[in-house]
Specification:
Length: about 290
């Protein structure tokens, strides 16, 4: 079976070079077999032909190989977001942290071997965060985040009501709030004191950025992990100019009424390529190997 693949790289020289090498190797990968054909009447000759294992398809790939860092994987996901239900992602990392990436630039042969044997049934699926935005004028938009979504202010403090499902939970005042997926828990969430979550835990996490706590504004003050059945609703004060982000994309908004976060069962799939166990990846990335 020929697999349709696409390489998504960033512009760094190392990624470009790795991408060129991988492209060549993928094209050269195939099974050789002999085929008999009739060279002239009565004369049967055999020749060696190659059945390729991979072909390139940018429009509807089954596998997207991201080459770069986590930022590259985030961009690859957003490029193919609409079709993500039919795609398996895999990452090669070229010098960055590479939390989402399984292979190093010197492991392309291992990568190709793994890609030959993986399939959609043994793919690894992790939750995506559904983000529904409602504007003052009644408009609505929805997004999916792979890492997290934030509502933030820098100049003045953000004042917002936070509801969990249908009840008012707290009145927040501070720099902002970050709601992350399990795989995003090692990114921004971690920098602001959020817990690292195993990606198989189906839950989202909300963490505070510099909350002010006093008699008027009182928040939980610690990150919280919210179950899949619940929603988190953030309602900023009317007319607040704020920054709203979905992964690495940032929007300056002045008319945001509320943002509703939930997990609706949609997932991102990673090709099952003998993944490094999650906790050893956490150790390698944040504690270091000795
Ligand atoms: P960036 O500024 O290059 O990313 C910041 C760092 O986060 C990079 O080292 C990146 O790794 C790493 N990273 C991204 N996703 C990760 C994950 N799931 N687990 C562990 N580390 C992760 O910008 P970017 O590469 O476009 O990534 C956007 C992300 O940056 C956002 O989604 C947000 O999570 C994060 N961010 C963090 C802070 C903070 O910690 N103070 C502030 C803003 C944004 P690579 O070097 O491999 O790309
Ligand atoms: Mn980056």
């Amino acid at each position: 079976m020929v697999k349709k693949v696409w390489i998504y790289d960033n512009e760094s020289p190392k990624s470009q070079e790795t991408s060129r090498r991988l492209r060549k190797k993928l094209l050269a990968s195939g099974t050789l077999r002999t085929e008999a054909h009739e060279a002239s009447p009565g004369l049967i000759q055999t020749q060696l032909v190659q059945d390729g294992h991979f072909e390139f398809d940018e429009i509807s790939p089954e596998i997207v190989i991201s080459i770069g860092g986590d930022g590259t994987m985030l961009s690859a996901f957003h490029k193919y977001e609409e079709q993500a239900d039919n795609i398996r992602f895999v990452g090669v990392h070229t010098g960055h942290l590479g939390f989402y990436t399984d292979f190093l630039a010197n492991q392309l042969d291992e990568l190709i071997e793994a890609l030959r044997t993986e399939n959609s049934k043994n793919a690894v699926r992790y939750p995506l965060l559904k983000v529904e935005v409602k504007f003052d004028d009644g408009n609505e938009k929805s997004y999916y985040a792979l890492n997290e979504s934030t509502v933030r202010r820098g100049d003045e403090t953000l004042v917002a009501e936070v509801d969990i499902s249908e009840f008012i939970f707290e009145k927040f005042r501070g720099d902002g709030l970050v709601v992350s997926t399990p795989t995003g828990s090692t990114a921004y969430n971690k920098s602001i004191g959020g817990a690292v979550m195993h990606p198989q835990v189906e839950a989202m996490q909300m963490a505070e950025i510099a909350s002010i706590n006093n008699r008027v504004f009182r928040t939980l003050g610690s990150p919280m992990i919210v179950a899949k059945k619940d929603t988190i609703r953030i309602r900023p004060e009317i007319g607040t100019k704020l920054w709203f982000t979905i992964d690495q994309k940032e929007y300056k908004l002045a008319n945001l009424k509320e943002v509703i976060y939930s997990l609706d069962g949609r997932t991102i799939s990673f090709a099952n390529c003998a993944h490094t166990p999650f906790w050893s990846r956490v150790r390698n990335s944040f504690i270091g190997t000795d």
